[in-house]
Design goal:
This protein is 40% helix and 24% strand. By secondary structure, the chain is an alpha/beta fold. A six-stranded antiparallel beta sheet has the order 2-1-4-5-6-7, with helices on one face. Strands 8-12-13-3-14-15 form a six-stranded mixed beta sheet, with helices on both faces. The protein has a three-stranded antiparallel beta sheet with strand order 9-10-11, with helices on one face. A hairpin with a 2-residue loop joins β10 and β11. α8 runs parallel beside α9. It is globular and about 70 Å long. The two termini are 27 Å apart. The model has no long low-confidence stretch (mean pLDDT 92).
């Protein structure tokens, strides 16, 4: 799978750009702040309907414009003439609109699963060194790439969680609303829904983490050969022994009942996958707090490489995006990261200076300066 044409209108710094792309390695070289990351961010947006840099759509629209458009022609693979045209109009404060082969879709979410991406960026270090939310985001992103319908499941979970938290705040007396005589019955309804949808989220996470770690451990050994083995375990208040959804839903309900008093007193849901974490280990020690900066970087890269190889094992050929990661790596890690991604149908790379790129990732080069993208024929 690869993108062979990209069109941006009022996206980030670009008023209008039309860009032909090749399969294989494509590099964008330019000084910081010139717009190279905006190009790969747009490709990832069509795959995920989100940005790996910001949590809101507002910064994606060029200053002074009211709407941005991202459009790409996606090929099924090298030597395959089949193509689909994906397009999204981004309008902050209003519902975004999507089209597939120029035909309007009822909702943008229907684009998910056509284009798949794996993004490497400097922010990936937070997966190892950051708070639990960073590890949940990483795992949920991989889950959604494997099974696009899980994006909707996670959206449903967040919606139920907000409603349940609102009710708990009211029951705690912190919401400022009058007591609700039917609150206990309503809470049972939200408990059932949270347990049902939460079990789907939890089951998909557990299966994905189990499938991911053999690839991650191998990738870590390849990037940073040591005697320390990369490992991971899922941390939840449930201490799940398997990924069966019915069993997980029952366990979630039981835990909510056991901690009912605590949840009402605090006015917030303390049970569910939104509170979980992934414990990353190197050898006998946890990676967070014990791994060096270099080891943490190697682990973060190994997790992303592991995700790439897992997707390929699933029969998915994602577009790889290496966004400004090589400047933070030494020559050995640059070379080993490059060696781990060369099998991809397409690798989109950004770098401030060409010297940061391993020779194996030179590919077709574009220069980016002041919002202009020009082929570099060298």
């Amino acid at each position: 799978m690869y993108v062979d044409h990209l069109t941006l209108v009022d996206f980030r710094s670009y008023e209008h750009v039309e860009l032909d792309l090749d399969p294989g390695v494509v590099t964008f070289v330019g000084a910081n702040g010139q717009g190279k990351t905006n190009l790969v961010e747009a490709v990832d947006y069509l795959a995920t309907l989100g940005s790996h840099r910001v949590s809101s759509d507002l910064p994606l629209v060029r200053h002074g414009a009211v709407q941005a458009t991202v459009k790409a022609r996606v090929r099924a693979g090298r030597g395959d003439d089949r193509a689909l045209v994906l397009e999204v109009d981004i309008t902050p404060g209003r519902a975004n609109r999507a089209r597939l082969n120029r035909a309007p879709l009822s909702r943008p979410r229907d684009l998910l699963g056509i284009l798949r991406t794996v993004v490497f960026s400097p922010e990936d270090l937070e997966i190892v060194k950051g708070d639990p939310a960073a590890r949940r985001r990483f795992l949920d992103s991989l889950v959604a790439t494997r099974w696009p319908r899980m994006t909707g499941v996670r959206h449903d979970y967040d919606k139920v969680l907000r409603q349940r938290n609102s009710l708990l705040r009211t029951m705690s007396g912190k919401g400022g609303a009058a007591p609700d005589p039917y609150a206990a019955d309503t809470l049972r309804i939200w408990n059932d829904q949270l347990a049902s949808v939460g079990a789907e989220v939890l089951s998909a996470r557990l299966d994905t983490l189990r499938d991911l770690m053999p690839y991650t451990a191998q990738a870590y050994a390849d990037i940073a050969p040591t005697n320390n083995v990369a490992s991971a375990s899922y941390r939840s208040s449930l201490e799940p022994t398997g990924s069966d959804r019915d069993e997980l839903a029952a366990a979630l309900l039981a835990e909510m009942e056991a901690r009912h008093g605590e949840e009402v007193a605090r006015g917030v849901s303390v049970v569910g996958p939104h509170r979980d974490d992934v414990d990353l280990g190197l050898g006998d020690l946890p990676a967070k707090g014990y791994a060096s900066h270099g080891e943490s970087w190697s682990y973060a890269l190994a997790l992303k490489l592991g995700g790439f190889h897992l997707l390929r094992a699933d029969g998915i050929e994602p577009v790889l995006i290496l966004d400004d990661v090589f400047a933070a790596l030494d020559a050995t890690r640059r070379s080993r990261l490059a060696g781990g991604v060369l099998g991809a149908d397409q690798v989109l790379v950004t770098a401030a200076v060409a010297e940061d790129l391993p020779d194996s990732l030179q590919g077709r080069r574009h220069r980016v300066a002041a919002g202009e993208v020009t082929p570099d024929d060298r």
